[in-house]
From TrEMBL:
Keyword Acyltransferase: yes
Protein keywords: Acyltransferase, Transferase
Segments forming domain N-acetyltransferase: 1-133
InterPro entries in the cross-refs: Acyl_CoA_acyltransferase, Bact_Acetyltransf, GNAT_dom
Protein name (Swiss-Prot/TrEMBL): GNAT family N-acetyltransferase
GO molecular function: acyltransferase activity, transferring groups other than amino-acyl groups
Length: 151
């Protein structure tokens, strides 16, 4: 998978970080495939990366969901797989995710699947894009709404 991204060092670093999360048992890297092609991915974290959520609902967390082919059920399938792991294997009480205020299509999907706004404050999604060698390319600081689904 990394080899297929030879011209995209930031993407290579991102995938390595997801793999490291899985290797450390802090989460699971989920990849959707159709006809031999990767069509989506996310990382499911055992605990939220946001301290305020860990102190409150302490959900498992879907992080950076990407469905590369829109409106074909890929995002839904990835979310359902994440929910099954969180509820059945990890016995987590809830699952959540952050969604940008400008991402209405994603919010619509999440709400259709039973996610509701968390009662706490909005979260600030801080993350960095890094080159393959780990050099920071860009820093993000995105305000988001947090959505939860309890099991």
């Amino acid at each position: 998978m990394i080899g297929a991204l030879a011209g995209e060092p930031a993407a290579q670093h991102h995938i390595r970080a997801r793999w490291d999360t899985q290797q450390s048992d802090d989460g699971v890297y989920l990849v959707a495939e159709r006809d031999g092609e990767i069509v989506g991915q996310t990382v499911l974290l055992r605990h939220s990366k946001y301290g305020e959520l860990r102190a409150d609902a302490d959900p498992a967390e879907i992080n950076a969901l990407h469905a590369y082919v829109p409106r074909q059920g890929i995002g839904t399938a990835i979310i359902r797989a994440a929910e099954a792991i969180a509820a059945e294997e990890w016995k987590r009480p809830a699952i959540g995710l952050a969604v940008g205020f400008d991402n209405d299509p994603a919010r619509t999907l999440y709400e259709r699947l039973g996610y509701v706004p968390w009662s706490g404050p909005h979260v600030l999604d801080y993350w960095t894009e890094q080159a393959a060698d780990g050099t920071v390319v860009r820093t993000h600081n995105d305000p988001c709404e947090y959505l939860l689904k309890t099991f």
